[in-house]
Structures are given as structure tokens and as C-alpha cells.
Amino acid sequence: MRAIMYQGKGKLELQEIPQPTIKPNEVLLKVKAVGICGTDLHIYNGGTDVPPGTVIGHEFSGEVVAVGADVTNVQVGDRAVAEHVVTCGECFYCKRGTPNLCNKRQVLGMDLPGALAEYMAIPANLVYTFPATIPYDVAALIEPLTIALFAQTRLGSLAEKKVAVIGQGPIGLFLDQVLRLAGAEVIGMDVLDNRLTFAKTNGWIAHALNTNDSAFTEQLAKIAPLGVDATFEAVGRPETATLALEITRPDGDVVLLGVFEQPVSLNLMRLIRKELHVHGSWTCAFSFPPAIELLQQNKVELASLITHRYTLEDTPRAFVEASTYSDNRIKTVITLE
Ligand SMILES: [Zn+2]
Ligand SMILES: [Zn+2]
Q1: C-alpha 174 to ligand 1 mean position (Å)
Q2: Cα angle value 35/70/63 (rounded, 5°)
Q3: Distance between CA 125 and CA 288 in Å, rounded?
Q4: Is residue 87 annotated as a catalytic residue, yes or no?
């Protein structure tokens, strides 16, 4: 089968490799669509310890074409998505109901072969089906939606609270939507006006603030005189982490889920004197069923985030172009026949 192989910093190659065989507890998925996210670009740019020779890609959808003898939850012909974290089920964290923290976790597209290939073998317990009303390319965005949904559940009720979302990339745009559904007054923040306009036009945010605007502090003070009740940081840069501590009111919450490429230096006295509650949010757990349900009920809009599509053969070019964040790009999706 054809697969896209990561071959070291800045190098992706289309290769012919053997089709995977499945174990009794596994499902063979014929991949239909793969989303490219910041983590993939991070791997591509050599920012991780993912070894050369890895098939990357972890946001995907496909058709089940074979199931192992022990599989009962899915059938051949099902349309399916899957979680990308393979957990052990036996460690302290798995037993406690926090499998995203499993200390033997292995990630599809990093530690195990990923989705930028014609077929992939996946443990059946990670697989979820979805109806034909959801197109495959849209279904590939269910995974990033679960990230936003899980981050939201780090906090309790957000009804009528003023909540800032720093970063209006795909994860930020999904956060806007799930926070709005939770009853929050969402304040979208970014440095790119086109993304702010997109979120505002869709009605996902109540206020759009460009953090580079000289009137930013003044504008925010009008909306939230005490500071915002909660802030979600979905960028992963020193200045946005600092901003999160600055704009959140005393006794408020900060959720960090951006992928930080470097250690960040922060003024922790801001945190101490404001008695801020800072939470990390790492991947997701038990988030696929509610994410699929939100999509099925048309409570979230995913399709309009897909701005650029490529074929599997064109994946190397997709990564070069996606790395620039230009051309009003929001989400890049690779589609397979
Ligand atoms: Zn991702
Ligand atoms: Zn475990």
C-alpha cells in the first residue's frame, strides 16, 4: 500500500509498504481522510523525537474493511473514527479513569504507524462509528473536536461566565463552539483578523479581540472589568501563556492546551497574587461519543473549517504550504479515494 513516511526534519516521502495485518482485537481501516494539525507540523519540522521511518497522521476517518475474530463493536462496512492513544488499561492512571495519562501510552502516528496510508490497523476499543450523514473529510475533524471538548470539561459550569479563548486556529474555533454551547460569553483572541472575523461571523464568539491592537487592554476592560472568569490558551507560545495569566481575574481559571515547543518563563507572582487555578489539558479521554453526538445533532460546525484539500501523493506539498499559515488557511485535510 502507499504511505507517507516521515524521514527526518522537513522530509516526507511517498512509499510502498506492506499492508498491515490485524490481530484478533483489531480493526483494519481503509483510510478516507486525514487532518493535518499543529502536532503533525511540529513533527515535520523536527520538533519531536518521532523517529524517521514513521507513518504520521492521527486525525482520521475511514471505512472498516476487516475485523479481528474478537471484535464485536464494529463491522465491516462501518464508517469509523478512532482515538489515537493506545493505553495499557492496567496502570494507576488507566484504572483511575484517566487513560490520557497512561504511563505506557503509545500514540498512532508517533509511536505506532499513523493514518497517512491507505490502511491502518487499530485496536477495536479505540474505534467509534458514525452515520453516513457525516462526510469522511468532516469526520477527520472529530479528533480535534474531542481535544476542545475535553479541555472544556477541565472546568465546571461555565454558564454566563466570560471566557477567553486565546488562539483561533482549529482547536480554538472548536473551543469557541463548545464553550458557547455551555452558555459562556466567549471572547475570541488572535493576532490574525481573518480568523477573528470567521469566528465572529459564524456567531461562535461574542467578542473578537486582536491582541496586537493598541486598544486591546481597553477593549477587554470594557467587556470584563475584573478580568475574564476563565482563559483557554490554545497557541503554545510564551506571550500567549503570559497573556492568559494577565487577563484572567483573581480566583479565575486558566486552561493550557497549546503545544509549547520551548520551556516558557512566566511571572508566577501573577498566579500567586491572583490565586489563579491553572490546569493542563492533555489529549482527551471518553470524548469521542459526545463529540460525534454534537456533530450528528448539528450543534457544532466543522465543515467550513476545511479550507485546503490534497491527495495522499500531494501530502509533502500540503505540509510545506500548511507550515506558512497563509492564504486564510484554517484546516488542511488529505483525502484518499
Ligand atoms: Zn492533532
Ligand atoms: Zn495505562
Answers
A1: 13
A2: 30
A3: 12
A4: no
Q: Per the structure block, which three cell numbers stand in for 157?
A: 459550569
C-alpha cell at 219: 477593549
Count the residues in the chain.
Answer: 337
Q: How far is the CA of 89 from the centre of ligand 2 (A)?
A: 5
Q: Note down pLDDT in tens along the chain; length 337 residues.
A: 999 999 999 999 999 999 999 999 999 999 999 999 989 999 999 988 899 999 999 999 999 999 999 999 999 999 999 999 999 999 999 999 999 999 999 999 999 999 999 999 999 999 999 999 999 999 999 999 999 999 999 999 999 999 999 999 999 999 999 999 999 999 999 999 999 999 999 999 999 999 999 999 999 999 999 999 999 999 999 999 999 999 999 999 999 999 888 899 999 999 999 999 999 999 999 999 999 999 999 999 999 999 999 999 999 999 999 988 777 899 999 999 7
Hey, how many other C-beta atoms are within 10 angstroms of the C-beta on 127? 22
Residues contacting residue 271 through CB under 8 Å, at least 6 positions apart = 245, 278
Q: Left if phi > 0, otherwise alpha if psi is -120 to 50, otherwise beta: which for 159? A: beta
- Which ligand is located closest to the Cα atom of residue 85? 2
Question: For residue 285, which ligand has an atom nearest its CA?
Answer: 2
Measured from the Cβ of residue 43, the count of other Cβ atoms closer than 10 Å reads 23
| Predicted structure pTM score | 0.95
Ligand nearest to the CA of 144: 1
Amino acid found at 134: I
H or E element, residue 279: strand 277-280
Task: Tell me how far apart the alpha carbons of residues 179 and 159 are, in angstroms, rounded to a whole number.
Answer: 9
Q: Around 201, how many Cα atoms within 13 Å sit in the side-chain half-sphere?
A: 8
134: alpha, beta or left, given left = phi > 0 and alpha = psi -120 to 50? beta
> How far does the centroid of ligand 1 lie from the alpha carbon of residue 46, in Å?
16
Q: Please report which helix (H) or strand (E) contains residue 329, including its range.
A: none
CB 322 within 8 A of CB 307: no
Catalytic residue list contains 39: yes
Q: Which residues pair with 223 in a beta bridge?
A: none
